[in-house]
Amino acid sequence: MTEFELDAGGRKIAVRKDLRVPMRDGVTLVADSYSGVEDKPRPALVALSPYGKELQALALTTPPQRRPSPMWDGCIEAGDIARVVEEDYVHVIGDLRGSGGSEGEHIGNYNAGGVSLGQDAYDFIEWVAAQPWCDGNVGMIGISYYGSMQVLAAAERPPHLKAIFVSGGHYDFYETTYHGGIMWFMPRAAREGRGGDSGWAFTDRVKSRMLEAYSPEEIKARVEKRLRDPDVAAWPNLVHVLHYPKHHEAWFDIITNEVDGEWYEERNPVTLAPNIEIPVWLQIDQGRGWTMDGTIELFDSLRGPKKLDIGPYPPMQSRPFVEEHDKMFRWYDYWLKGIDNGVMDEPAVSVFVEGSRERVTGDHWPPKEVEYRSLYLRPRRKLSFEPEPMGAEYAAPDGFYQAPLTVTDKVEILSWSTEPFEEATELAGTGAAHLFAEIDQDDTNFILRLWDSAPDGKRQLITTGYLKASHRELDERTTEGNPYHPHTRAVPVEPGKIEEYVLRVYPFAASFRPGHRLVVELSNDEPLADAHNALLPPDAFHLPVGRPVTHKIYRDATHPSRLVLPFTR
User: Fold this and answer.
1) What pLDDT is stored for residue 7 in this prediction?
2) DSSP string, 122-187
3) 458-499 pLDDT per residue, tens
4) How far apart are CA 418 and CA 453, in angstroms?
5) pLDDT band for position 415 (50/70/90)?
6) Residues in domain Xaa-Pro dipeptidyl-peptidase C-terminal (predicted)?
7) Residue 235 within a domain
């Protein structure tokens, strides 16, 4: 360990580099700490990830970058070091085992050397609490991977972890990579270091749990099965990883586990949430629908004091991460320093409503009572509160043909729109899209996007929904406007058969002002760059359909295709 002082904008910071933190199995992790120079114990905020503590130190020298800045790096997520020190906390940034300067090896997703990352976090937190520069009160800091680590740590119940503040974490590992059963490439970017992400800071490689758990014959059979999927077979990166799994072993594991089940559930944060009893503040910004879904599910599962804060669009925070610190320090001042600042006298749920740009508060999600109402797809690309009276022989279906992106650059998009709203109309909650569709293949993607369209033509994404057609099964949790898919198996579609597909419309909160329209778009691929996707990391798109597909969307008296949306009362 080395100790020195540095100057950050005129403020002296005491730095302890390469602290050695022992784990219970003999592996040693390394960490850096940052604090004020006065020799006194302070509460500590711990940040743990495999992204590398040296990368996080750029928070002291790199101004925050908003997407779509080319300097935005998705892995600088441990927080504003100078601000943490200014608030009189110790900022402790550690490398998980197998990464950076830490010993050990990393196996698979959120599994280090065969032990739970929560177990390592427990040992790390208790070591920090015992140091003379810590007063025994520990919280955690950081978004995304760091946020997931907070939940894994809290579920292990380390005695000195007093509270956590989690922003933008991932709590359902299947939904982190498969949205409605459709593969999402963003986790590949975060792991490999592609297009706006530095990636994992591993000194060797991340080892595959699949390769360790299955025989070569079983692995060969799984690979052959995945290569029979036309979507996979048409995408060079996936073909490469399947043939050469040691090139990117963690990504190989995800590709070969295309349905939900034990492989994902084993250490799912949302599964472990009922073990958490300490205070938890959950924060998420709108525009990341699948992450909002997991955040709300986690909130509902927690037993102890809790808060849910849903912020405004756009979806991606700055890198280095500096947002939400005012709220975080109020939370930690209360729970770690014992300052009665009134934070617990405020409502448990606070939601920013797009459109009106007002905050709505309550004791639960959604913060207001809602009434589910249907908006029906009608001829001439209209959305109406009234169902279509004509039968299928008169109300001919809408349709589109999508060629694979191997032979075209054009993504075909169908859209339907309401008439302009005459008065402000607020919606908040989860929704559903019931699509009666016929396809001429045994599978496709349904990608749904809802927009608020202003009279001047400007528009903002409100929420999304995804469903791989072969994952259309619903489970017993499904209620009106709130569908659930188990994603435990894929059932091929019978070509030419009209099926009802029910998409989960991810949670959102929006008020449509007078003159604005609600527009819904449907496609089976997504634009690789548009006003919304430009705000996301460059690799944040979904696996395109690898076969030509003709889609017919029926919306007649017999086939009432519709949106079921949560209108507030």
Assistant:
1) 83
2) HHHHHHHHTSTTEEEEEEE--BTHHHHHHHHHHHT--TTB--EEEES----HHHHHEETTEEBSHH
3) 999 999 999 999 999 999 999 999 999 999 999 999 999 999
4) 10
5) very high
6) 329-564
7) no
Domain of 13 in residue numbering reads as 2-211+270-340
Give me the half-sphere count of Cα atoms (radius 13 Å) on the Cβ side of residue 520: 29
Please indicate, yes or no, if residue 257 is contained in any of the structural domains: no
For 243-252, what is each residue's pLDDT tens digit?
Answer: 999 888 888 9
CATH number of the CATH domain containing 539: 2.60.120.260
Residue 289: phi, psi to the nearest 5? -55, -45
Residue 506: φ, ψ to 5°: -65, 155
CA distance 258 to 315: 26
Which three-class secondary structure state does DSSP give residue 540? coil
Under 8 Å between Cβ of 310 and 137: no
In angstroms, the CA 50 to CA 45 distance is: 17
Q: Is the pLDDT of residue 447 over 80?
A: yes
In angstroms, the Cα distances linking 443 to 427, 496, 526, 541 are 32, 11, 16, 19
- With 0-12 / 13-18 / 19 or more C-beta atoms within 10 angstroms meaning exposed / middle / buried, residue 215 is exposed
327 with 400, same domain?
A: no
Among residues 460, 434, 470, 458, the alpha carbon closest in space to that of 549 is found at 470
Q: What span, in angstroms and rounded, lies between the C-alpha atoms of 395 and 398?
A: 9
Strand partners, 138: 44, 161
- Residue range 85-111: average pLDDT? 91
**pTM of the predicted structure, to 2 decimals:** 0.95
Helix/strand/coil for 88 = coil
For the record, the structure tokens of 355 come out as 């459109």
Q: Which amino acid is at 136?
A: G
Query: Nearest to residue 177, comparing CAs of 256, 70, 95, 284?
Result: 256
Q: Is the distance from CB of 82 to CB of 7 less than 8 angstroms? A: no
Contacts of residue 18, Cβ cutoff 8 Å, sequence gap at least 6: 1, 2, 30, 31, 32, 101
Evaluate if residue 78 carries a pLDDT over 90: yes
Report the DSSP pairing between strands 549-554 and 562-568. unpaired
Percentage of the chain lying above the pLDDT 90 cut? 83
The mean per-residue pLDDT over the stretch 432-456 comes to 98
Two structure tokens written together for 184: 């999402």
Query: What CATH number is associated with residue 301?
Result: 3.40.50.1820
How many domains does the structure of the chain reveal?
Answer: 2
236 is a domain residue: no
Within a domain: residue 292? yes
